[in-house]
């Protein structure tokens, strides 16, 4: 059996993690001689604590060991496993990423190569459009943008607190913000 790829591992792990309300966000595998490496990034609507990450890591390790014993997986001579949450550099590619980062500032590109910045507001009920909030010294503007139009987006690291007007816009429903 060949060394498992990221998609195979995602397909195996997602149902197990879904029981805990978690999602596989990213898996990287590196085949390297005696010690291969498997790095798994997980997240949920409630960000997993370090205790939960430790429990999940132990469960995944036992699960992989069992699958290897059954001949269903082969990591070679051995592997190291790292389980953590994604960093801010994980691109926002799914509606759940936008929902989980509501209120945070994001850099995005609408496919024109121009990077823009806005604060993430509410998703619509269909989870295919998001409110993007921009602020100037005088006012706050909110606009709806379809997720399919956003070519790339990542959360920005922010040190300043947003204004109260921005926070008010973030708290609005999609319909309230759109009007």
TrEMBL record:
Cellular compartment(s): Cytoplasm
Any Gene Ontology CC annotation: cytosol
Record carries keyword Cytoplasm: yes
Domain Ribosome maturation factor RimP C-terminal, first and last residues per copy: 92-159
InterPro entries: Ribosome_maturation_RimP, RimP_C, RimP_N, RimP_N_sf
Keywords for the protein's UniProt record, in alphabetical order: Cytoplasm, Ribosome biogenesis
Any one of the GO BP annotations: ribosomal small subunit assembly
Domain of life: Bacteria
Family under the similarity heading: Belongs to the RimP family.
Primary role: Required for maturation of 30S ribosomal subunits.
HAMAP family from the UniProt entry: RimP (MF_01077)
Name of this chain's protein: Ribosome maturation factor RimP
């Amino acid at each position: 059996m060949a060394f498992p790829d990221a998609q195979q591992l995602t397909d195996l792990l997602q149902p197990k993690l879904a029981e805990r309300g978690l999602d596989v966000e990213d898996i990287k595998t590196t085949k390297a001689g005696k010690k291969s490496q498997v790095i798994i990034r997980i997240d949920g609507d409630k960000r997993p604590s370090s205790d939960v990450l430790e429990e999940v890591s132990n469960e995944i390790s036992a699960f992989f060991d069992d699958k290897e014993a059954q001949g269903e997986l082969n990591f070679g001579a051995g592997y190291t496993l790292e389980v953590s949450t994604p960093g801010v550099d994980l691109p926002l590619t799914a509606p759940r990423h936008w929902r989980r980062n509501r209120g945070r500032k994001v850099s995005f590109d609408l496919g024109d190569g121009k990077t823009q910045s806005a604060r993430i507001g509410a998703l619509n009920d269909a989870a295919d459009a998001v409110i993007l909030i921009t602020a100037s010294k005088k006012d706050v503007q909110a606009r709806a943008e379809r997720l399919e139009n956003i070519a790339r987006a990542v959360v920005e690291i922010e040190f300043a607190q947003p204004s109260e007007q921005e926070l008010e816009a973030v708290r609005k429903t999609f319909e309230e913000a759109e009007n």
